[in-house]
Design brief:
Helix content: 10-25%
Number of strands: 4
Number of helices: 2
Shape: elongated
Structural class: alpha+beta
Largest sheet: 2 strands, antiparallel
Order of helices and strands: HEEEEH
Length: 89
């Protein structure tokens, strides 16, 4: 990890388990209130990335449709429609 001021921050987790991202990081990354973040464990590190919208069912990130505030890919939507047609018969 670089240790110059531009890249080096130390923050503590509060009693509720929260971490405040420094404003400079939020500004540089375009992180605003409501930005979805994806957290992953990588060895002894926690990696945080801005989450791309993904299909609620399969995780696909292309050809998404917003369905009742959930992202669904066209393939899963087609499967849902087929299932609905079968159930209605």
């Amino acid at each position: 990890m670089k240790t110059n001021k531009e890249y080096f921050y130390i923050r503590q987790i509060d009693p509720q388990g929260r971490l405040v991202l420094p404003k400079e990081i939020r500004d540089r990354m375009g992180i605003v209130v409501g930005t979805p973040l994806r957290l992953a464990i990588d060895g002894s590190s926690v990696v945080m990335k801005i989450a791309s919208p993904a299909c609620f069912f399969c995780g696909e990130t292309e050809n998404l449709i917003n369905l009742k505030e959930k992202h669904v890919c066209s393939s899963c939507l087609e499967k849902l429609n087929k299932k609905k047609q079968i159930e209605e018969e």
